[in-house]
Amino acid sequence: MKIFIFWMLITAICGLPIIANELPRSSSPDGAQVYFIEPNDGDVINGTKIEVVFGLSGMGVAPAGIEVMNTGHHHLLIDVDNIDLQMPIPSDANHLHFGGGQTEAVIELEPGKHTLQLILADHLHIPHNPPVVSEVITITVE
Questions:
Q1: Rounded to the nearest 5°, which phi and psi values hold at 6?
Q2: What SS3 class is residue 7?
Q3: Cis peptide before 90 (omega within 30 of 0)
Q4: What is the pLDDT of residues 49-69, one digit of tens each?
Q5: Cα–Cα distance for residue pair 133/119, rounded to 1 Å
């Protein structure tokens, strides 16, 4: 939300057109992919701490706030059904940001079934155009 307000101020000061509910998006190259190295779809994990390793091809990783062409940083969506790919990715317990350029993490999940999805986003946490998103995977935590 802060990014959206910041963008509205900049567009007003610079006289740029504002398109409702849409911010400028960084482009992604053809064939760019983000995917899970670990865990795999259908994995049953013993214990509530899960190691998640992110894969990326066709683009590079750069920290949030650093604008470099054909780069972004990872976001992990946990039990999220849909997301507005035109807006910055929210930051909460279901939308984890890895703005330091991390390519892996240990997360803690309650026992049960969970869905996971990765989205690469630009320096302002906005998904690229076209979006670079992984398949949704389902894991079971025991």
A1: -60, -45
A2: helix
A3: no
A4: 999 999 999 999 999 999 999
A5: 4
